[in-house]
Amino acid sequence: MGIRRLIQLPEQIWKKFHSQGLILLYHRVATLDTDPQLLSVTPEHFSRHLEYLSEYYNPISLSELQRAMEVGKIPDKSVVVTFDDGYADNFQNAKPILEKYGIPATVFVTSGYVGSEREFWWDDLERLLLLPDQLPDQLELTINGKTWNWDLTRDPEKIIKQGHETKSKSWNVTLSSDPDPQYTVYRDLHKLLKPISHEEQESILSILAEWSGVSGTGRATHRSLSLKELNQLDRGRLIEIGAHTMTHSMLSMQPEAAQKEEIIQGKLSLERMLGHQVHTFSYPYGGKIDFNKTTVKIVRKAGIDTACANYGSTFIKKVDPYRLPRVLVRDWDLQVFSYNIGKWFNE
Ligand SMILES: [Zn+2]
């Protein structure tokens, strides 16, 4: 086979002969009653994941990976653990398990939520729409100049068949059916709230809070890191802190000035809290549609040298450091976790 043919080999085959890197994306390590977005991994499963990685793979930090990419040699079977958003359980539950196995991790923190009692908008949406047993029958909202109406009248037969608590515990967005209209409204509103600005999200959520009659700012189980917890996570060499914007907005939908504010202020505010500079970043939501070329330009200019996305799988040495691929890890038992890791490395 000539050199020309070798160069033309498909990426999958090319990958098999080269050391690959894989970046895992977690959000939460906690045991929750309800988890409609499937963001949480139980401490038991997280512990099994790390035990498996320490035995069969080569867990390295994001900065080690970055240095390895610079010299063009990624150590064999390299896996990087990352967390997005900055939930308090990253400190309470994930840190002790990471320490037990000596596995490094990067936690990307949404600066505006540190020390706040407010939940992220997607959690608030769950609290206001999915947790109440009874909601008013009609909902009307104007979002981005368009008025939407929903009828939440429930089928009385379904109410008898299955209690509300059972339904909310077993339901998540990947399921194809919705047991009650409130689940459909939740799906619709999740789609409608994601692209709008933080201020608009806040205004819709306060209307919803009044409409649903649900009080309080947020659940203790869903809070972000406190300033003290953030600094304790940052202490020591095992956990690195990265930036994840100020308010977790969908950057591609914001004008350039708003993107700059989110990225630069998010980074500066985090640096003030930590007392040192931050060089890594992950794009909120991280999909191809969630950020654009302008975002990457701003991130680069802000002094970030490594930015993680939320798509793709393993990669060999040639990869854009501003679009590092990552794979989402769900609450898998060891069998599913090991199967998926193996699949990613061999695909
Ligand atoms: Zn996020």
Summarize, please.
With 347 residues, the chain is an alpha/beta fold. It is 42% helix and 14% strand.
Task: Describe the structure in your own words.
The longest helix is centred in the C-terminal third of the chain and has 19 residues. α13 links the parallel β10 and β11. This protein has two domains: 231 residues, TIM Barrel (Alpha-Beta Barrel), CATH 3.20.20.370; 92 residues, no CATH class. It is globular and about 60 Å long. The mean pLDDT is 92. With 347 residues, it is an alpha/beta fold. Strands 1, 4, 5, 6, 9 and 12 form a six-stranded parallel β-sheet that branches. The structure holds zinc ion. Zinc ion binds next to β5.
Task: Give the tags.
alpha/beta, 347 residues, binds zinc ion, 6-stranded parallel β-sheet
| Structural class based on helices, strands and sheet pairing | alpha/beta
Number of strands: 12
Radius of gyration: 21 Å
Mean pLDDT: 92
For the record, the CATH class of the largest domain is Alpha Beta
**Percent range of helical residues:** 40-55%
Bound molecules: zinc ion
Spell out the CATH superfamily of the largest domain: Glycoside hydrolase/deacetylase
Span of the ends, CA to CA = 23 Å
Listing every helix as H and every strand as E from the N terminus to the C terminus, the arrangement reads HHEEEHEHEHEHEEHHHHHEHEHEEH
Shape label: globular
Q: Number of helical runs?
A: 14
* DSSP strand content: 5-15%
Largest sheet: 6 strands, parallel
Unreliable residue stretches: none
Named CATH architecture of the largest domain: Alpha-Beta Barrel
The oligomerization state is: single chain
